[in-house]
Automatic annotation (TrEMBL):
It is a single-pass membrane protein. GO terms for molecular function: peptidase activity. Belongs to the band 7/mec-2 family. The keyword Ribonucleoprotein does not apply. This is Regulator of protease activity HflC (Stomatin/prohibitin superfamily). It comes from the Bacteria. Residues 218-245 form a coiled coil. Residues 304-361 are annotated as: Disordered. Residues 310-331 have a biased composition (Low complexity).
Amino acid sequence: MEFGANIALLILAAVVIFTLYAGIKIVPQGSNFTVERFGRYTRTLSPGLNMIVPFFDRIGARLNMMEQVLDVPTQEVITRDNATTSVDAVAFFQVLNAAQAAYQVSDLQYAILNLTMTNIRTVMGSMDLDELLSNRDTINDRLLRVLDQAAHPWGIKITRVEIKDINPPKDLIDSMARQMKAERDKRAQVLEAEGDRNAQILRAEGLKQSQILEAEGKREAAYREAEARERLAEAEAKATTMVSEAIAQGDVQALNYFVAQKYTDALSEMASAKNHKVIMMPLEASSLIGTLGGIGAIAKEVFGNNSDSGANTTTQGAQAARKAPAKPAARSEGTSRSGSADYVSVPNHIIGNRVPPTGSR
């Protein structure tokens, strides 16, 4: 009896231990288990130690809740401009709801793979090849938005979609290279033309400014010259007026001084010419040379030098100059006759002295 009781206790203990073992479930970190009772989903086991009803409950699906990588194989895509290109992509997803992922789709990864491939063809087929090559970020964003919306009923979150590579055909790559080279050559020519145009504009602006400055300088010079001529004319008019007034008052000495001064200026200008060493003048004019010594005395008397000794000397010199007869010039040397006028050659050094000293004839 005792032996049979012991065997029964051992069997009971084994059953209890087996039942406890069957009801204890340990779920690793990063995973979720679904529990089915008589084939129907009841609940989800989270990571850690969990208890189920032995012989009634069982583990249905074991799902990885971490972010997973799905490599999308290379596929051919026809773009909107009928260019065929090979596209390689990769997708990242994560299971958010274990029950939906386990019971809403049969093969989770296969479903995500096909969903990604079809949407790649749809999105990239609506774009030109140039857009595909230059707008990868836009393609990634559109694919992510479309795939995440499609996988949401499965309890899946599409975290990222990346286009790894886009490979157009070789002949198309060569055409693109030639196009790029032509575009760069065109850009270089445009830049060179713009540089030449800017340089010509700058040169024209500089020439314009120089011409403006030159014209302004000429205008200023003409203005100054006209002003000088105006002042000279005013001085001449004033001198003429003074002489006229002196004549009107009966002062003949002022007229003599004025005429002698003009004659002396004319002789000085003739003598200053570079190509004249000897000046031919009328014989009667030689008498005027003798009177040049009295011009200084006439000037002093006309302009009112009232000093006693100076006034007497000036008056005597002027009277002597007026009374002195003109000496005829000798015709032995430098004298010629043409018609009724006699001429005498006068060296330049004699004419060069506009007002020679008194009595130096």
